[in-house]
Write a structure and sequence with these properties.
Distance between the termini: 38 Å
Strand content: 5-15%
Radius of gyration: 25 Å
Protein name: tRNA pseudouridine synthase
InterPro entries: PsdUridine_synth_cat_dom_sf, PsdUridine_synth_TruA, PsdUridine_synth_TruA_a/b_dom, PsdUridine_synth_TruA_C
Shape: extended
Pfam families: PseudoU_synth_1
EC number: 5.4.99.12
Structural class: mainly alpha
Low-confidence stretches: 26-36, 215-232
Enzyme class: isomerase
Mean pLDDT: 78
Helix content: 25-40%
Number of helices: 5
Strand order of the largest sheet: 1-2
Largest sheet: 2 strands, antiparallel
Length: 232
């Protein structure tokens, strides 16, 4: 929670969520190789598109972590509703964020705004992206070729098929633990009220902020008043 910068409202409106499989670019790639049929699903890519009015700090990475855990069978789909029930789950369980590698804020829309585009800047940006694409596409092709050859070698010479299982290791930190601990059994972070009180005591937020949070008693003000009376 980015309370230190004055954010105390954490209600955001999500307009749509869509998850789809990316289309194959090449019928001869790793996914469609006849000698690697067991690897088909392991090397396909999916994209999650989330549209909202505004996003919180690390909100998308947190969402993706939960989706990864559900997809891996470590959590039930019902965990989503439990975490969103802030009356019964007032403190967020501790878990790592999904990797930022795949995160891309690619579009923003504003009412009554007309964008003006500079031709030269667009050409420079396209040129830079083309260079990046060429670099990563070359590495991707090399890795695909090595994976196909080595997996085929393992199958032919050792009579063993290695099912893809390491592609998601970079996606989120929770996947690296040996003994998985369910989210609802983990230690929790501080509640919003506790975070606000922390910054009020450090004088980074005004004490009046506590009154703006539903169900939060202004403990800091009460303690201050008591201290003042004791001193008098």
């Amino acid at each position: 929670m980015d309370v230190g910068n004055g954010v105390i409202s954490f209600k955001r409106k999500i307009l749509s969520v869509n998850i789809r499989e990316l289309e194959e670019k090449d019928t001869n790639d790793l996914c469609s190789s006849k000698k690697n049929n067991l690897f088909e699903n392991g090397y396909k890519m999916c994209v999650a598109t989330i549209e909202g009015v505004a996003f919180l700090w690390h909100q998308i990475r947190s969402i993706m972590t939960i989706l990864f855990l559900v997809g891996e069978g470590k959590e039930e789909p019902s965990i989503v509703g439990k975490l969103l029930d802030v009356k019964n789950c007032i403190r967020k369980p501790q878990y790592g964020f999904a990797s930022e590698i795949g995160l891309n804020l690619y579009d923003a829309q504003f009412d009554n705004v007309r964008w003006h585009y500079d031709k030269e800047n667009l050409k420079v940006t396209i040129s830079q992206l083309q260079s990046l694409w060429a670099e990563h596409a070359t590495k991707e092709s090399m890795l695909h070729s090595m994976l196909k050859d080595l997996s085929f070698c393992l199958q032919q010479n050792c009579n063993e098929n290695l099912i893809p299982s390491n592609q998601h290791l970079f996606s989120h930190l929770d996947v690296k633990v040996k003994n998985y601990r369910p989210l609802m059994e983990r230690p929790t972070c501080e509640s919003l009220e506790e975070r606000v009180e922390h910054y009020v005591k450090r004088r980074k937020l005004d004490a009046s902020v506590l009154k703006q949070i539903e169900g939060c008693e202004p403990k800091y003000e009460q303690e201050s008043e008591k201290t003042a009376k004791d001193k008098s």
